[in-house]
């Protein structure tokens, strides 16, 4: 991996939090992701399952973590299973984790090779009453491919039908949504790398540059700063492309006088950042563009202040909608009659701002978090309002990542990334 090794104390702490929530006499198993085939012998780059990474720090395929806090023997309470390395693998694929190195990474002393998994699991099952299976229950998830985790669950149910079944995901949804200080530092590093990429663009963007050239500048800066690359598929949307919320073609020329909506950010050590900025191709916003830009910025600033412990996600979006409604009235995009006659299920402001304002962020860009539960300190949220005006040929979205504090306003992890229109113009015209 490109990132610096993370202190194993973080993963020891994460496991203690998880096992404290497990039922008595229960086992939990977590699998790495597959390496997914493309065609012939081609594969997609490996991306580790965030749950096993969160609990172990292991960033390698074909790894399994077994947790059994009530095991009869100390060495059985935490076990890692790894693909056995060899001289042949080292030559053809590079370094894989040895048992000693796995301990350094994870803090887990008991490490076996993968071929011993079924034998050892069988022994654990004779002691245990309950198995925690790890299913994907994220509110945005649509899983069509059978994952390694899903295959394991199917196999386990066939072989151990007499055991009770419990779910890991509700525990992880709560634990992962509240960040440890080490995690906040890693997300900050991702944000700092994103800042470097964004500042690079401000001196690069000129009329007639292409969206894909901008993408190339970003990936260059991200990788040279130890990021694996983009935290998610980048959106580099010039002109009317900005009105397609998930525009990812990035293949058009940026024309003089247009704006470019950038929704682009780096990952670091599997932790995401998530940035949106909207910049002028020619280095200056026109009067209308700046008016809309500043309206979006005011909504973002007001929305940020609402992110405090105890806030409910659904009500928060209602309140942000009121602020956005006021700004759209000021811009002349809606009028009082639109508001008076609006459908409560789809308020008038939704014509120009149709997506949510915030989501959890962390190991996943749309991270774990139970939306029906109140917000807590050390949760990380995006704040990303936008106004999209196809009739005028542009859309504007601004987004920062913030940490909820025990008291007061959230801490902005992107506080150093230029966002004021005047500062962006100044930097683009240096």
From TrEMBL:
GO molecular function: aminopeptidase activity
Keyword Manganese set for record: yes
Keywords, sorted A to Z: Aminopeptidase, Hydrolase, Manganese, Metal-binding, Protease
Cofactor(s) in the UniProt record: Mn(2+)
Residue stretches in coiled coil: none
Ranges for domain Aminopeptidase P N-terminal: 6-142
EC number: 3.4.11.9
SMART domains: AMP_N
Entries under SUPFAM superfamilies matching the protein: Creatinase/aminopeptidase (SSF55920), Creatinase/prolidase N-terminal domain (SSF53092)
EC supergroup of this enzyme: hydrolase
Reaction it catalyzes: Release of any N-terminal amino acid, including proline, that is linked to proline, even from a dipeptide or tripeptide
Pfam families attached to this UniProt entry: AMP_N (PF05195), Peptidase_M24 (PF00557)
Membrane spanning stretches: none
PANTHER family on file: XAA-PRO AMINOPEPTIDASE 3
Stated family: Belongs to the peptidase M24B family.
Name this polypeptide is given: Xaa-Pro aminopeptidase
Organism of derivation: Flavobacterium lipolyticum
